[in-house]
Amino acid sequence: DNVGTLGVTRARATLDRTPAFDRECSTCAFFSVFAVYMSSRASTCVVRTFLSARGGGAAAASSSVVRRLSASTTRVRAIGAADDAVTMTTDVVGVDGATVAYDFGAHKLTNVVSPTPSDIDVASAAEALPIKLVAEKMCGLGEDDYELYGKYKAKVSEKLSTTLAGRKSTTDVGYYVVTAGITPTPLGEGKSTTTIGLVQALQAHTNQRAVACIRQPSMGPTFGIKGGAAGGGYSQVIPMEEMNLHLTGDIHAIGVANNLLAAAVDARCFHEATQSDDALWKRLMPAKKDGTREFSAIMFKRLKKLGITKTNPDDLTEEERSKFVRLDIDEDRITWRRVVDMNDRFLREITVGEAATEKGRTRKTGFDITVASEIMAVLAMTTSLADMEDRLGKMVVGPSKSGEPVTCDDLGCTGALMALMRDAIKPTLMQTLEATPVLVHAGPFANIASGNSSIIADQIGLSMVGKGGFVVTEAGFGADIGLEKFVNLKCRKSGLKPNCAVIVATVRALKCHGGGPPVKAGTPLDHAYTNENVDLVREGMCNLVRHIENTKAFGIPVVIAINAFPTDTEAEHAVIREACIAAGAEDAVLCTHHSHGGKGAVALAEAVKKACEANQDCKDFKFGYDTDLDIKSKIEAIAKNVYKADGIELSAKAQEKIDLYTKQGFGNLPICMAKTQYSFSHDQNMKGAPSGFTLPIGDLRLSAGAGFLVPLVGAFPTIPGLPTRPAYYEISVDLESEKVLGLS
What we know:
The model is unreliable at about 1-100 (pLDDT under 50). Strands 3, 4, 5, 6, 7, 8, 15, 16, 17, 18, 19 and 20 form a twelve-stranded mixed beta sheet that branches. Strands 21-22-23 form a three-stranded mixed beta sheet. The N and C termini lie far apart (about 60 Å). With about 750 residues, the chain is an alpha/beta fold. Helices cover about 40% and strands about 15% of the residues. The chain contains 27 helices and 25 strands.
């Protein structure tokens, strides 16, 4: 009687669009809607009366029902408040008239075991929420916003990234945090684990909306040295075996798309070499039964490039037909390579066309690991389906014999690649052990690729968390590689600016950079790494200090996460903190998230929040160079300012490529360096903070679709090899439970 007919009508209309599981208790969901639309004492009284009627009184019922009310409200606001659909609040009017927030802490870890079991054992023991609940109750997504891939994974619509454009100002979005690391050892220093631990601390332990944006693991490292990339210990993405093995098929889609284009290149060269212009024309433009011919839609892009405006194939002159059918690819300078998602060193250089059916048309080429494919880079840099189509079409497979770039559009492959990549553009939604949302998209290997999570995933994450929330996005390997590319490539394209950077460091890595014995995967650590050695840590701090200085040079405040190991000592940690603060870090925080989950990263979360709040406007953020500089000068800017080299040395091959790409009009593209992750220099044995060296550039690759140039430092391989004892020795399947064993 007190709330009015209009409120009831609006509430029921919204309730009718609420998913069935939100109507688990229909009356409860109805009054949740009431609370949103009426926010009145009257609706609160009705809720209180309803609770009492169920027995036990309002106080006794509030624990279970209010939580349900709150969870429903997240979803209801997302679908009911159309003019502000991306700002999902979790407020609901409780039984006592007060505002109640959704309790993210309800999913805190309660069964932490010490010593910490193996990653796969921790993950197997976890009870994951159905991803539908994570999507709708925690992220505020509607049923049309995502597609289920089984019970614990979902693909999220890429269209959600455009909701940022509808915000009134950039101050309405969440805080943007990038995680990078110290120059690592081959064992890794826990950057992914820290990313997951941080978002668990933010959401489950401090009740801040948080989303992690991480990269899909490559199966090369999973079966090779490093293991998977789902985090570790009690800071993991689950189900970890699904994340580390196949996930939702993005990397497979990229591999097939890449190799389709590679097959198209070689096939086109073969057909042009063995057929006349007339034969090529008749096969490319077959006549219909009535004798007419018709261009396919993709062919008009080739015609436009040639300056041909005719739409009827029969109107083309003999010269125009010849230009149209002959790409005239220079087979000795084809740059497009095949890929496989595995560490296989014997594919680095191969010869194709050996079969007799290829009529002696052999050529030398090679494989890259799939995540180094330009198509992966396109996925990471794209902002929409239309943008991806444009980027795929612009990818260059090599020059023609006259020096013109030959593109995917020229080969007519763009539409087919789009069909293969249609679902890959959608980030995969998963969850941490403490039910914090995670968006998994794009790939790793910042040493040979862009190595950052995708722009689309970050934008969707910022839409999800809203003002005051946190998106923690991951940049691969050390800050000299992943974070540099995050700034100069990713932020340059997206227009987003980070409020804070977290750099992950370990005592182990610092000792390595301070002169400790070599660290090798698969062999026991030397006692220098397991016994206290403060002097060795102090000597290695030069590496971490340089990462701090480099990051601050981009205008980004730095928080250091000291990823603690059981063999560390307080004295070693004290040295790290003292040197970090002296170098200008906002804070240096001890973290035990591997052993304790989000609880072990609460201090880190508080430090990050403080740094973000102090840098809300990101006014000091800047790029590392101007793209209007010539190609050589841009490479030198990174080499001198980030790596601290004296200069660069270009091989004859690299100089030839610079001249070619400049002539072709690609000289204004930014730079994506390919170099070892184990040193600031080109030599992985030069630990610490080397300077004064000359950086050798052995080759240069063009990623026109992704929008950057890739200098290869030295003779840097773009597909790893397997070690003497790979990780696959430990991986198997339990024949009874059918669970995967041995993943790390």
